[in-house]
Amino acid sequence: MTVTDLLSYDDALAAYDPVMGLEVHVELGTATKMFCGCATEPGAEPNSQVCPTCLGLPGSLPVVNATAVESAVKIGLALNCEIAEWCRFARKNYFYPDMPKNFQTSQYDEPIAFNGYLDVQLEDGEVFRVHIERAHMEEDTGKSTHVGGATGRIHGATYSLLDYNRAGIPLIEIVTKPIEGAGERAPEVAKAYVAELRELIRALGVSEARMERGQMRCDVNLSLRPRGERAFGTRSETKNVNSLRSVERAARFEIQRHAAVLSSGGTIVQETRHFHEEDGSTTSGRVKEEAEDYRYFPEPDLVPVAPARDWVEELRGGLPELPRLRRGRLQEEWGISDHEMQSVLNAGAIDLIVATIEAGADAASARKWWMGELARHANEAGVELAEVAITPAQVARVSALVAAGDLNDKLARQVIEGVLAGEGDPDAVVERRGLKVVSDDSALGAAVDQAIADNAAIADKIRGGNLAAAGALIGAVMKLTRGQADARRVRELVLDKLGVQG
How many domains does the chain contain in total? Predict the structure, then answer.
């Protein structure tokens, strides 16, 4: 089904009620893998970080990574989950080339954390509660690279390359309960939930949760039911969506696709689907298995995990300030409105602004530069704000130069442009481009005299008491000095030379 075959979004929502389920896989930032001592450092030569255990060789035995268990408990606590007093691993059996053991060591009916919730704030400030079914521990698969096809997928490829460096890296899979009642805002809720979850994971320090690097990815399950009915419809599962925007687009597309199929008398197939970034569409992957198809059974080579209650409470007491509470505190400290704080959140600028303040800038200027000039550059480049090639310390230095009167805002924008272009730190850009504000009276005086001579009529208005007209002369001086004049001092000189009291 193409984009043009979809039912309109409004028509889809008029006839059907969407139900979502979101499964988010988080790659933990441990030094070693989930069940062996192999390193997890990214960028290593293919198949160089492997051993008999993560390759599934006969006779090798797994050992649970204690740091991964601790991270799982922290995530569960932060998601308001109950922490199991006793849980164990299971074998999830299926054949695929990137699973060297032909099974994945995971958790099935006994997860380490369950029955929680996460409150997420939508763009208009409304808070929506997403209920968590479970958070369980498992291992990642290897990486397949399909070569020779047009799409980079296995279909049409002439051969595939397998890298098992990723096989066995610790994962936490966080599964929501069915998300009902979101209506037309379901795609927005999906995006907000994944965004809030990402902030929470980062706050806990258990993962960088970089979606573009595959450290966090989301499976979007969606079904529709006719308005007024309670039974769920057949679901599709869009796999491995790796950006916030794509999560929203995938949910929206699937709502429209399901509605088009159902409205035409068709039947939804329970299947996995691939998301296509270029047009926001999804295409069929494979028929989706049910749980019994995986033939789960308890992992015989691992002992159960039984987190001690005093240890769990110790971890609970050591949790950092969680994102929603932190945002409320920062909003009060910065003195901004709910709408302004939501804009900062949507831009992904909170940590950048905080770091800029810690580097010496005041809150107002830090927010101004990140939400203004730098956000514009990020939008034009099509990248996240955090990927813009300037550091919080550099932004703080620009702010300090403005505060000291060495730069005005126009010059500061040029300095930022130079830093982004790779010309060095702000001071080096100022020096190389000769951008410092001119505040010397002798240099400014000549420019003011020239502006008065060139604009005699305006000068007469100012002499007659129309002080607002001084802005035109100040602008003329700024033009003569290529924007490098100290505007405040220029105004003083203009009024003084015209014999007018300011």
Answer: 3
Assigned domain for 307 exists? no
Nearby residues of 30 by Cβ (< 8 Å), 6 or more positions away: 40, 65, 67, 68, 71, 170
Question: Does residue 405 sit in the same domain as residue 453?
Answer: no
Element (H, E) at 276: strand 271-276
pLDDT in tens, 345-400: 888 899 999 999 999 999 999 999 999 999 999 999 888 898 899 999 999 999 99
Neighbours of 164 (CB within 10 A): 22
Instruction: Give the residue with greater pLDDT, 3 vs 399.
Output: 399
Token readout for 61 is: 């035995």
Q: Looking at 238, 267, 300, which one is the last position of a domain?
A: 300
Q: Strand, coil or helix: what is 361?
A: coil
157 shares a domain with 38: yes
Per residue in 475-495, pLDDT tens?
A: 676 666 666 666 666 666 666
- The rounded distance, in Å, linking the Cα atoms of 411 and 436 is 8
Residues 83 and 185 in one domain: yes
pLDDT in tens, 444-464: 666 666 667 767 677 666 676
Measured between alpha carbons, how far is 468 from 424 in angstroms, rounded to an integer? 40
Range of the domain at 424: 323-433
Query: Looking at 395, 410, 433, which one is the last position of a domain?
Result: 433
Residue 418 confidence (pLDDT): 92
Q: Are residues 181 and 330 in the same domain?
A: no
Within-domain flag for 315? no
**Orientation of helix 441-454 relative to helix 487-497, angle to 10°:** 60
Mean pLDDT of 5-23: 95
